[in-house]
Design goal:
The complex is a heterodimer of chains A (447) and B (85).
Chain A: E1 6-9, H1 13-25, E2 29-35, H2 42-46, E3 49-54, H3 65-74, E4 79-81, H4 91-99, E5 103-104, H5 109-116, H6 118-127, H7 143-153, E6 157-165, E7 168-173, H8 176-194, E8 199-203, E9 209-217, E10 223-235, E11 238-244, H9 251-268, E12 272-280, E13 286-292, H10 299-306, H11 310-318, E14 335-342, E15 354-355, E16 358-360, E17 367-370, E18 377-378, E19 385-393, H12 396-408, E20 411-413, H13 419-427, H14 429-433, H15 440-446
Parallel strand pairs in A: 1-2, 1-4, 2-3, 4-5
Antiparallel strand pairs in A: 6-7, 6-8, 9-10, 9-12, 10-11, 11-14, 12-13, 14-19, 15-18, 16-20, 17-19
Helix pairs in contact in A: 4-5, 7-8, 12-13
Chain B: E1 2-9, E2 14-17, E3 33-34, E4 39-45, E5 48-53, E6 58-63, E7 69-71, E8 76-84
Antiparallel strand pairs in B: 1-8, 2-4, 2-7, 3-6, 4-5, 6-8
Chain lengths: 447, 85
């Protein structure tokens, strides 16, 4: 079986354009789906064909499984690439694709469901011998049960909804009174936001670093890693700057981390691209946090250091081909940094929808994965991330200089962006020294 | 007894909701008593939810914007009647 004739992209913005680029290179036709708000967006024009699937609100278009499936059937697409966000981690969508004989470009519904549960994935990874953050091993049903577990592990603790994500359904508790107060509200929140009231406790790591491992596995039993990404520059649990390799790891620690990640992948029989997220404490101990069963926003930095096209990998794996490279053929070369440009205030993080009246971008020594062009409307309906600036050079210092030069040349008028924050980050001693934790951005912003 | 009406305005553009989540009841019904700081509704913009809170105590007289509609910044959401002796 060759790769697909036609792929439908169940996404929008920069990632839709990114997938179209690889499909074009491989001679695969593309179908864009779009909402009313995106009718004039660049990705709609760049696809081979485009289908409007509904109103601007995501739940009436990009999140409507049946509308997406119908668009795929009407256009006779062989496969669907979900991108990230929207339906990319929705097992019901994967099942619907299967029922219709359309290839879902990603893992199986079963594995996706397993890894979608923070608690279940924790249990599975622990069983595979992978360190997990000390915490409760099952759903906590009552306050008393939670208090008992808390006494054993010790405060401070994080009370988490098993189905939670993006910072919702998480509560830091410093003592038993706080736990008593937070327990019922967090459980209630978990039920109303995620339809699943399972909650558990995890030891709170005060100065954490967030480092993730890119993995790939085919349907023939082969699995490889493509090194790590350092993602500790975050605001409200949203990543802002990522880099690869991580300045924290030496070769021994890196080897330990990536082999641990592979152990987990093999345990669950994972297929296609995925990311194993780990949290590091101040003593370089690391623990499994969660797995993202899709292409990651920050995948370009891995592509830059390994010289791969990860979307092509996804397509080939989904088409049943063996992995494009074996472990000993995957080398890392130099250093790559990505900055995410958000349509939001750099200090308050207040969103800023509007029309891009003027856009100036650097023309060389930089990779730009942007969803917008001059004249585009940034609507209030979707994510505020409008583009990614990616640089690659021989070493970290050279990459930082290149990033600064790229950021200097960017001008966006018509909306407020976090560009000044990105420039400030590149200038801080903490970032340039590589010695930063997830608390870094809070410290930068309050200066 | 005097009563004075104030309009509750949208501070930001976005999608206006009267419920905390689709399955739950509305925060307030017309005619409900409101204290300072009570949540009147939510506005969703770029995947972030902002709470619209009452800045004065009184009675939520009527809603001027329906649940789940797009609003512009400054748009009138509801009428609040203050009551003082």
């Amino acid at each position: 079986m060759g790769i697909f004739d036609k792929v439908l992209i169940a996404n929008r913005g920069e990632i839709a354009r990114r997938i179209i680029r690889t499909c074009n290179r491989l001679g695969i036709q593309t179908v864009a789906i779009y909402s009313d708000a995106d009718a004039d967006a660049p990705f709609v024009k760049e696809a081979t064909e485009a289908v409007c699937i509904g109103e601007s609100q995501a739940k009436k278009s990009y999140l409507d499984i049946e509308k997406v499936i119908n668009a795929a059937k009407e256009t006779k697409a062989n496969a669907i690439h979900p991108g990230y966000g929207f339906l990319s981690e929705n097992p019901s969508f994967v099942n619907r694709c299967e029922e219709e004989g359309i290839v879902f470009i990603g893992p199986t519904a079963e594995v996706m469901k397993l890894m979608g549960s923070k608690l279940e994935s924790r249990i599975q990874m622990h069983a595979a011998g992978i360190p997990v953050v000390p915490g409760s091993e099952k759903d906590l049903e009552t306050v008393d049960e939670a208090l008992e577990v808390a006494e054993n592990i010790g405060y401070p603790l994080m009370l988490k909804a098993s189905a939670g994500g993006g910072g919702i359904g998480m509560k830091l508790v410093q003592n038993s009174d706080e736990l008593k107060n937070a327990f019922n509200t967090t459980k209630q929140q978990a039920i109303s936001f995620f339809g699943d009231g399972a909650v558990f406790l995890e030891k709170w790591i005060t100065e954490p670093r967030h480092i993730e491992v890119q993995i790939a596995a085919d349907t023939h039993g082969n699995a490889v890693h493509l090194f790590e990404r350092e993602c500790s520059v975050q605001r409200r649990h949203q990543k802002v700057v990522e880099e690869s390799p991580s300045p924290l790891l030496d070769e021994a620690l890196r080897e330990k981390l990536v082999s641990t990640a592979l152990l987990g992948v093999e345990r669950i029989g994972y297929t296609n691209l995925g990311t194993m997220e780990f949290i590091f404490d101040g003593d370089q101990n690391f623990y499994f946090l969660e797995m993202n069963t899709r292409l990651q926003v920050e995948h370009p930095i891995t592509e830059e250091v390994t010289g791969t096209d990860l979307v092509e990998w996804q397509l080939r794996i989904a088409a049943g081909e063996p992995l494009p490279a074996q472990q000993d053929q995957i080398k890392k070369n130099g250093h790559s940094i990505e900055c995410r440009l958000y349509a939001e205030d750099p200090n308050t993080y207040f969103p800023s929808p509007g029309t891009i009246k003027h856009l100036a971008l650097p023309e060389k020594d930089v990779r730009l994965d942007f969803g917008i062009i001059e004249g585009s409307v940034v609507s209030p309906y979707y994510d505020p991330m409008i583009g990614k600036i990616i640089v690659h050079d021989t070493d970290r210092q050279a990459a930082i200089i290149k990033m600064k030069q790229a950021l200097e040349q960017i001008k966006v008028e018509g909306i407020v962006t976090n560009l000044p924050l990105l420039e400030r980050i590149m200038d801080t001693e903490q970032f340039t020294s590589g010695n930063y934790t997830t608390n870094f951005l809070t410290e930068v912003s309050t200066v | 007894m005097m009563s004075e009406s104030t309009k509750v305005l949208a501070a930001i553009p976005g999608m206006f909701y009267r419920k905390p989540s689709p399955e739950e009841d509305v925060y307030l019904n017309e005619g409900d008593k409101v204290e300072v700081g009570d949540i009147i509704g939510l506005i969703e913009v770029m995947k972030t939810f902002y709470e619209i809170k009452a800045e004065k105590a009184g009675i939520l007289e009527s809603f001027l914007t329906e649940h789940e509609t797009m609003v512009d910044a400054g748009q009138e959401l509801a009428i609040l009647t203050e009551q003082s002796e």
